[in-house]
Amino acid sequence: MEPFIKKKTEETPAIIFNPSKGVFQLVATSWPENALGFYTPIMDWLREYFKEPNQFTIFEFRLDYFNTSSAKQIAKLLTLLKEHSEKHQVTIKWFYDEEDVDMKNAGRRYGALLNMSFDIQQKRKFL
Known about the structure:
- By secondary structure, the chain is α/β, with parallel strands linked by helices.
- The protein has a single domain, classed as Transcription Regulator spoIIAA (2-Layer Sandwich), CATH 3.30.750.
- It has helices at about 35-50, 70-85, 100-115; strands at about 5, 15-20, 25-30, 55-65, 90-95, 120.
- The chain has a six-stranded mixed β-sheet, with helices on one face.
- Strand 5, helix 3 and strand 6 form a beta-alpha-beta unit.
- Helix 1 (about 35-50) packs parallel to helix 2 (about 70-85).
């Protein structure tokens, strides 16, 4: 399956889905005007991927900010990952900046809401 790559914009996160490496990332901010329109192709691509997934899939959320409409779509995305984690090994990593308690707590809330175990990590700072 071909990778799904989109560059970030001011309003949308970078999408880096590389099935050959088994690593899938959403990076930066998510506040598109049409969150459903933005996330639908992501969900469609993932549904196709999970027809013949890798043995291990690592999904990384490296978001700095997301708005309410994105939060709903992220919940749908996590629900899809949870469904497939019952058949395949899916690891969810949720990264947050050291001073961003809200983003850290968002990862915890999603994990509790979906009854999933997340690997919640502070982003490393490079000098």
